[in-house]
Amino acid sequence: GDSVTQMEGPVTLSEEAFLTINCTYTATGYPSLFWYVQYPGEGLQLLLKATKADDKGSNKGFEATYRKETTSFHLEKGSVQVSDSAVYFCARQGGSNYKLTFGKGTLLTVNP
Amino acid sequence: GAGVSQSPSNKVTEKGKDVELRCDPISGHTALYWYRQSLGQGLEFLIYFQGNSAPDKSGLPSDRFSAERTGGSVSTLTIQRTQQEDSAVYLCASAGGSKEKLFFGSGTQLSVL
């Protein structure tokens, strides 16, 4: 079935470090790809998305590029801040019913 | 409403009891999802409603779990004869015409003692 695999955390970085969180997806059909973020004490919210191959989603300094050849959608940020500390979820959406399938989430902690 | 509303926010129950969790989606949203969030398990898909179509129940873990959506709006997730492994945060999300952007509620924290 459809699935998403993302690197397991936790990931701990110092402020201004470079961030990469790996994500790969099953290539059934032509899925749309997403990163959702869950800040401490808050609900999940959409961070960025890409709907077709080679699209780059970006928001709040985060970027991810839809790579069909490697079935990947890695999340990157050049310089993380303490306020980026959260759980990040990679997700795919495809099929006739638009079901959204999530990875297991990666906890990021950024220290000052 | 302003967002997806879930109730109760916390529920503590005894093993073997039945529980009902409620979700009020954003008005006008035709898609409604239930997910379960457990430590180490990420977000587990449970069930998906889209308009008047038959729901996708492929994620329900056992026949103790069921859900309905009345009038295309409010949804209730029912867990019968709860077990300790049912303890988790149950999240509801809805989506409108775009279907790509889900709006999540704050969840119901279920604790089965």
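qc> Residues 4 and 105 of chain B are 5 Å apart (CA to CA).
qc> done
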